[in-house]
Each structure stands twice: as C-alpha cells, then as structure tokens.
Design goal:
The protein is an alpha/beta fold and about 240 residues long. Helix content is about 40%, strand content about 15%.
C-alpha cells in the first residue's frame, strides 16, 4: 500500500495525478475550541456514551454540531482546490458523518458541509446529489461534491458511488485520498484494488503547537451545555476570565 505521511498542505500537491479526495474534519478544517481537538477525543466519547445511555444523544449532539465553529487548516485551501479543478482534476470530499434527521436537526449531513460554505470551498459539481438508498440506514449521500458515509466504511461508499453514480463515466486512473486516519485510507485502498485504480493515500498529521489542556475545564464546558443547551467556546471563557481579573 502506498501511504505517505504529510505534515503540511504544501506536501500534497506533487502527488495529484487524476482524482483527489479529501476527508473534511482535521484535513480541511478543524474546531476552534480545544474540546474539538484529537487530544479531547476521550472526553467527547464519554459524553456521547452518557447521552446515549440517557436517550438524549440525538438532541445534544445535533445541537452541538449546529453551534461548534471551525477554522481552516491552511488559508490557501480554497484556492488550491479551485486550481486543481481548473486544471481538469475531479476533487471530491469523503467524510464519515451521520446523515438524515438527527434529533431536531432535519439534515445533519448538511451541518458537516457548513464550514465548506463558510470558507468558500467548492468541490467538483460534475455529479448530481444522490442518496444511496441501496445501503443501510442512515443512507450515505453525495451532496455538493461530498460523499457522506453515514455508518458505512468510506471505501464501501466510494465503491457504491462508482456503481450507482459514475456508471458509464470514465473511472479515474488514479485516486489520491487525504485523511487523518489510517483505517480510512486502507478502506479506500481496498475499493481501488477492486476497481483496478491506482491509489496513493496521504496520512495527514500536521505538527501543532503543544498547548496545555485543562480536561476539567473541557468537562465543565460540556456540563454547562447539558444544563443550558448553549455551547460556551474558548474565546467566551477567556473573555469571562479576563473580566473577572
């Protein structure tokens, strides 16, 4: 398997040959709050587990996804994607995320695309939106150039995309897929092997400044959210702390 570890976006461009697929979170954008970082994954999972046991998971998590804010990994990402499209490359998103109704959120997949609209990131519009109703609920979707996998493996969804959407269109000769999880790269590699498509995977792990994280403070943010339904972000917490000094 051809997997290359990259730490910067500048390292990606030399590997673009034909199609380019991107994971979204932690590759194109990331949360502005420390609670959304990979180092707080355990805290987020603990609240997910708690809310599922209480029967409030859909309500709370759907509400959080609507409130969380994001920032670009690199300011030039929208321009680079446009340049690749203008040079004839098909550029799509491929993300693991729920679809359909999620608690009070009518279209939770659309929430995953919200940062793309905010940052003017546009994927290739070659293919019309499509719901993969042949796959188990929640049905994966193709929406605005992004494959949203629902509960399915990314490689399985991509294979169904080739069958149901691409059909008589030309199969790519090469796929470059950028993701921050090796298991997702392996899944897409299996799909490419079946369809006899050359594959290059980029495991994207940018070097980040080490910031001390107060996990008790992070838990406090979640506990306050449980009580009020309002997420208090890091900037708001800093403003309150400054005002109390």
């Amino acid at each position: 398997m051809t997997i290359i570890k990259c730490q910067t976006w500048e390292e990606i461009a030399p590997h673009v040959k034909d199609w380019v697929l991107f994971d979204l979170n932690h590759v194109l954008f990331e949360g502005i709050d420390l609670a959304l970082s990979s180092r707080c994954h355990g805290v987020r999972q603990s609240y997910k587990k708690k809310w599922k046991a209480e029967g409030t998971y859909l309500k709370h998590w759907g509400n959080l996804l609507k409130q969380w804010q994001f920032k670009l990994i690199h300011p030039s990402i929208p321009q680079w994607i446009n340049d690749w499209k203008n040079n004839g490359h098909t550029v799509l998103g491929l993300t693991s995320h729920p679809t359909g109704t999620f608690g009070k959120v009518r279209d939770i997949g659309n929430e995953r695309l919200r940062p793309l609209r905010e940052f003017n990131i546009e994927f290739s519009k070659t293919f019309s939106n499509y719901i993969f109703k042949n796959m188990p609920l929640p049905h994966p979707e193709l929406k605005d150039g992004v494959l949203i996998s629902g509960a399915q493996l990314k490689g399985i969804v991509l294979s169904n995309f080739f069958k149901k959407v691409l059909r008589k269109e030309r199969l790519p000769k090469h796929i470059l897929f950028v993701d921050d999880q090796k298991s997702n790269l392996e899944s897409v590699k299996k799909c490419c092997d079946i369809w006899k498509i050359e594959f290059t995977g980029i495991l994207f792990k940018p070097v980040k400044e080490e910031i001390e994280i107060d996990l008790e403070l992070i838990r406090g943010q979640f506990e306050a959210f449980e009580k009020t339904g309002i997420w208090i972000g890091d900037q708001q917490l800093q403003m309150v702390e400054n005002a109390s000094c």
